[in-house]
């Protein structure tokens, strides 16, 4: 037994040693087997490495997909869901959006969002580039201070996609918060909360944003419907026009040149998007404001 004084083994039948020829054949066979095993291990390792590398790449944009979720959000709302920021928030947001897009983002940080974007796109049929562009605009890909706790400077919105939790009587977050149930949650990702839904959980928040964009008309095409969905996402005002112009311009540029985490928005693309979609809406807003200003009081 272990720890006891070693004892000599009792005498027993000892088989005769094999010939040298047999030993050499055995050694050769073992060598060949070892080489085969090593080749298999290396092949699997290389394959696994390549698979891991592909998994860390941004998702592709398919031409079409099926949306399993119903087109109606919780609470019986099938019309456009429009945010309504206060005038104070609008003024501060104009500066905030510039700051968010100037933040440098590490590639490793972004890799955790790619599987979530892919699930959101496949589930709700929304171009993930539009979703990612809003993520960039709202919280600099979740790097903005306070993303994962509390509310923003206006005391209304929080989380990676800055959902409003105070408007209502049914808040925008309450309308979309259960959207995560329609897609398969990745096994692991950063900032996974203990309970769901949570405005601070990356998957819950991004899935809710994708469903909201889908309800507001966004699909795979980066067109006027995508612009309108981004406009609804922020709110119907002049700041919302600027917001939608920048969000769609960034997404279109990514679609043309490839996803670039730290590339700025091309001014020429912003101008083109504004001329096509933003300018008519801004003109209508301006005319409506003028009519209200000259309307006689009763």
What number is the mean pLDDT?
Answer: 77
CATH topology of the largest domain: Lysozyme
Straight-line distance between termini: 105 Å
Order of secondary-structure elements: HHHHHEEHHHHH
CATH top level assignment of the largest domain = Mainly Alpha
Envelope shape: globular
Describe the strand arrangement of the main beta sheet, using strand numbers: 1-2
Helicity, in percent?
A: 40-55%
Number of domains: 2
Strand element count = 2
Biggest sheet, open or closed, and with what strands and sense? 2 strands, antiparallel
| Spans where pLDDT lies below 50 across 5 or more residues | 1-20, 45-55, 62-78
How many helices in DSSP terms?
Answer: 10
- The percent range for strand residues is under 5%
Structural class, from helix and strand content?
mainly alpha
Keywords, separated by commas or semicolons:
10 helices; 298 residues; Lysozyme; disordered N terminus; two-stranded antiparallel ribbon; globular
């Amino acid at each position: 037994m272990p720890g006891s004084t070693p004892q000599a083994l009792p005498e027993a039948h000892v088989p005769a040693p094999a010939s040298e020829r047999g030993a050499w054949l055995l050694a050769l066979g073992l060598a060949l087997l070892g080489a085969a095993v090593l080749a298999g291990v290396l092949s699997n390792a290389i394959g696994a490495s390549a698979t891991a590398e592909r998994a860390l790449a941004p998702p592709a944009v398919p031409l079409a997909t099926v949306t399993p979720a119903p087109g109606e959000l919780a609470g019986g709302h099938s019309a456009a869901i429009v945010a309504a920021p206060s005038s104070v928030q609008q003024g501060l947001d104009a500066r905030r959006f510039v700051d968010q897009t100037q933040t440098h983002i590490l590639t490793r940080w972004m890799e955790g969002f790619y599987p979530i974007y892919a699930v959101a796109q496949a589930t709700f049929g929304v171009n993930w580039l539009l979703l990612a562009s809003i993520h960039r605009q709202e919280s600099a890909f979740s790097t903005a201070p306070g993303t994962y706790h509390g509310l923003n400077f206006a005391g209304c919105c929080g989380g990676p996609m800055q959902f409003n939790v105070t408007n209502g009587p049914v808040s925008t977050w309450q309308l979309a918060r259960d959207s995560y149930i329609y897609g398969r949650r990745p096994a692991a990702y950063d900032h996974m909360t203990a309970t769901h839904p949570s405005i601070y959980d990356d998957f819950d928040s991004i899935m809710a944003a994708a469903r909201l964009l889908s309800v507001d008309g966004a699909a795979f095409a980066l067109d006027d419907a995508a612009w309108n969905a981004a406009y609804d996402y922020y709110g119907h005002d002049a700041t919302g026009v600027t917001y939608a112009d920048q969000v769609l311009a960034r997404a279109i540029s990514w679609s043309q040149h490839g996803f670039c985490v730290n590339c700025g928005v091309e001014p020429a693309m912003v101008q083109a998007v504004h001329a096509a979609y933003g300018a008519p809406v801004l003109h209508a807003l301006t005319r409506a404001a003028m009519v209200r200003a000259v309307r006689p009081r009763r």
